[in-house]
Design goal:
This protein has 510 residues and is mainly beta. The two termini are 23 Å apart. A hairpin with a 5-residue loop joins strand 25 and strand 26. About 5% of the residues have low confidence.
Length: 510
């Protein structure tokens, strides 16, 4: 245990008596006061227990007196980084051996044992840490559809988080709410603020949208309940939370939440204007241009600005300087994918509206000067099998990107040689790739960098479908050169057709 304290009310008077009679010790009879003490080696310094799981602790108590005089009390209270105790203590037990079901909310607590000698009211206390784990902590969420019904699986892997646990929970919606979601899965997103109740997962299908608790998947709202103004169509396509605002692309239109309280976290209305958005949202530095989006209808980039409550897009100025890589206000192509990448730039993949051209555009969304927003443009049209590419990812740690066809994953070195090579082709003969996700934890402000040193940009999840079931390959990636190890770290099966993958972080607090 972390510490022990001993409280003996009678010692105050005894100390005064001893000082008064210091030179006349023969006039008194002295006795050592025996105080119950918890043997430190009999109790762990930290207990990790899942919410609603059983916890048993059997401490050894050193005591030479009459043990019938001892009483016991176990209490738990939220661990505070200050000296102030947060909230009232929760009674956990009243016997030496603690045996209880832990119903506390997920979080970090002090668990304290108070032992009292009723014969003289002397008290000793000892304390340890109790981490109450949520059923769903840090791991990957996989959205999958079968027979026009969508559900989500959670997988925690030590390859992702070495200090974590190995765990899989299948069909979270069915198991927690009694039914799956109607429709084909289209979008899954995660929202979190530290030490708060802002902690939820948003799931969207072709017919519905749901918000569920980030720890338990309990239902928090569905469809019209999530909108301040009635939405006539529920076609959620993309989601992004940047810790202060939450964005949703619904049927090509942008909705926003400026967070106040969890109970009032409703999409306030859609951005006005003539536009149809591609289903991708980028936001790294919000202070210059806010969130970055692409208007598929008019072939141009848009930004929200750093004030989103007016629900009006801002357009980038026309850049006519021919030395610049491109004009963000006039791209004239169809977006295939957009993601965060090296140097915190936005990486956007395009195809020509007609023809076979494929391109990578790089933007500095953090720039305060619109002339410096366009960074580079790379022609991908000559890359192997690029016409068949369906999925894309970009590295945070170097000039590396990835694209996947139905059967293969290519590593693309865009900045130097502008070439691509096969990195992985080890799926089954009857399988088709349905998605690709590179693990990039440093995008999440509540994920400790130290926790993910060995997995940052080093783990890739590749999903496949064989006509009957979905499968996930957990792959090791060399973050320096983008080479993928041929032998998967893990292979998971038993899904529907996987159509969305997302990293879910625990965050801090309850």
């Amino acid at each position: 245990m972390n510490y022990q304290k001993i409280f003996i009310p009678m010692l105050i008077g005894l100390t005064i008596a001893l000082n008064a009679c210091k030179k006349d010790l023969g006039n008194y009879t002295y006795h050592d006061v025996d105080v119950p003490v918890t043997e430190a080696s009999s109790v762990k310094s930290v207990y990790d227990v899942e919410q609603n799981a059983d916890l048993t602790i059997s401490p050894e108590i050193k005591f030479n007196g009459n043990r019938d005089n001892l009483s016991y009390q176990w209490i738990a209270y939220v661990r505070s980084l200050s000296s102030v105790t947060i909230g009232p203590a929760t009674q956990m037990g009243n016997s030496r051996v603690l045996s209880t079901k832990v119903s506390l909310a997920p979080g970090t607590y002090y668990l304290e044992l108070i032992v009292t000698d009723k014969s003289n009211q002397s008290i000793s206390t000892s304390r340890t840490l109790l981490n109450v784990l949520a059923p769903i902590e840090t791991g990957m969420l996989f959205m999958h559809t079968l027979n026009n019904e969508t559900d989500v699986d959670f997988i925690a892997s030590k390859n992702l988080l070495p200090t974590g646990i190995e765990k899989r929970i299948s069909n979270l919606l069915l198991s927690t709410q009694g039914s799956k979601m109607a429709g084909t899965g289209q979008m899954i997103g995660f929202s979190r603020r530290p030490n708060s109740l802002f902690n939820w997962v948003t799931i969207g299908t072709s017919q519905h949208i749901k918000r569920v608790n980030g720890f338990t998947f309990a239902l928090w709202g569905t469809d019209a309940q999530l909108f301040r103004r009635s939405a006539t169509t529920f076609n959620p396509q993309a989601h992004l939370n940047n810790y202060g605002n939450e964005f949703l692309i619904n049927d090509g239109r942008l909705q926003v939440i400026s967070w106040g309280t969890p109970t009032d976290a409703l999409y306030s209305g859609e951005f006005t204007g003539d536009y149809v958005l591609a289903p991708y949202i980028y936001s790294y530095s919000f202070y210059s241009f806010g969130a970055l989006l692409y208007d598929q209808k008019n072939g141009r980039f848009l930004n929200t600005g750093n004030v989103v409550t007016n629900l009006v897009f801002k357009t980038f100025k026309d850049i006519t300087d021919q030395t610049k890589a491109f004009n963000p206000n006039n791209i004239g192509k169809d977006m295939l994918f957009m993601d965060h990448g090296f140097q915190d730039y936005a990486y956007a993949f395009f195809k020509d509206k007609t023809g076979a051209g494929r391109y990578l555009y790089v933007l500095n969304q953090s720039s305060t000067d619109e002339d410096n927003v366009p960074v580079a443009k790379y022609d991908m049209s000559a890359l192997p099998e690029i016409q068949d590419a369906k999925y894309y990812q970009t590295s945070d740690l170097g000039n590396i990107a990835y694209y996947a066809t139905d059967k293969k994953v290519y590593t693309y070195e865009y900045s130097g040689t502008n070439t691509a090579a096969i990195s992985f082709s080890g799926i089954g003969a009857n399988e088709t790739i349905t998605g690709m996700k590179l693990f990039k934890p440093l995008l999440n402000g509540y994920a400790s960098a130290a926790e993910f040193v060995t997995s940052n940009n080093s783990i890739m999840y590749l999903s496949t479908w064989d006509g009957a079931q979905g499968k996930v390959y957990e792959l090791r990636v060399n973050p320096v050169n983008g080479v993928i190890t041929a032998q998967p770290l893990n292979t998971y099966s038993g899904f529907g057709r996987i159509n969305g993958m997302m990293t879910k972080f625990r965050g801090t607090g309850t």
